[in-house]
Amino acid sequence: MIATSGVAADAIAGIGLSGQMHGAVLLGADEAVLRPSIIWCDQRSEAECRWLNDTIGPQRLLDLTSNPALTNFTLTKLLWVRRHEPDLWRQVRHVLLPKDYIRFRLSGEHAIDVADASGTLMLDVARRCWSQPMLDAAEIDSRLLPAVFESPAICARVSTHAAGLTGLSAGTPIVAGAGDQAAGAIGMGITRPGAVSATIGTSGVVFAATDRPATDPKGRIHTFCHAIPGRWHVMGVTQAAGLSLRWFRDQLAAGASYDQLTAEAERVLTATPTPAPHSSGWQRATAAVISSARSWSAWRSACATRSRSFPNWIYQSAASGSEAADRVPGSGGRSRPTSTGSRSTPPQTRERHTARPFWPPSALASGQRWMRRAMLWSAAPGRRCPSRRLSH
Fold this sequence. Notes:
It is a single chain. The chain is of the alpha/beta class. It has a domain at 2-179: ATPase, nucleotide binding domain (Nucleotidyltransferase, domain 5). The chain has 16 helices and 15 strands. The chain has helices at residues 2-5, 46-55, 58-65, 74-84, 86-89, 98-107, 114-117, 132-138, 160-166, 180-187, 242-252, 258-269, 281-293, 297-302, 319-326, 365-379, and strands spanning 18-19, 25-27, 94-96, 111-113, 123-124, 129-130, 147-149, 154-157, 173-175, 178-179, 195-200, 204-210, 222-225, 232-238, 334-339. Strands 13-14-12-11-15 form a five-stranded mixed β-sheet. Strands 1-10 form a two-stranded parallel sheet. Strands 2-3 form a two-stranded antiparallel ribbon. The longest helix has 15 residues, at 365-379. The N and C termini lie far apart (46 Å). Residues 284-392 have low confidence and may be disordered.
């Protein structure tokens, strides 16, 4: 990049890192990667979440980390490896998040920012440091974890070896950075209490900045450190926003573009909620979701700008998060919708599902439940067929 951009290496004042959150990169004694990273959307650690709730307790988890046990958090992935890959776990010497592994390769340093560390379920979010009581309860050695820094802090410098590989100048400072949500929020100006954003991409996030840790007593939303020192944020999250839309398209409208789905959604919003008898399955399904989503019209009206990349009904996936954000002190007021999704090319082939259950066990929580309702509608207008199997 340096060679093609024409920017001189000595003109680069510093490097900041951002990337997907929660993933677990495990390094051994020789600091080589031991296994493929388990990333944020991997759901395999449900049993580990139950273990944390049974062993530590939901309320104690909130007291220690400000968050509930969820499959996307890093700790649950570590517990999964410890349980299912014990020989490999005994070799682990360092745990990093994906962007922090890039920092390690650039500098040789193990470091993380408070915003990204908040999503590990091992950080004392209120005090912005690792929670030793949480680590003790989960039986995780604190020596496995990187040092924690505020996002703007210089925590490493480009090594001579990395400089030779990249063209960067040795000694170029590297700041701690932030996970994708906190970094993106700063880019959108979500930096003060009262500012709220709604981001619809692969996942869906309602993000509100706060001036203090605002933990939901029922653990319905995430409470994290912001990338700004002295600031926190809350998030309502569904892991299947754009993923739900892609599943919907691939199962019911293979070959259709997202623009076609958007156009159909717009048509249904202004037409009768009952689809014509000759409508295709995916048109009826889209009509069903739009009809079900009408109750969210007030929330959608607050989002003045809607991305054409996604039908309006997908906003309902994050609505539970927006409701929770409304109850956070200082978080109400301004809502800024965004879209980070891409328009992927429809697949050329479709896998047959005649032997699979109607609703795949890998379906992801709230967004997929709306897809199920759509499928029930598509089976036959006006009647529900819960036992129907999908066949192409």
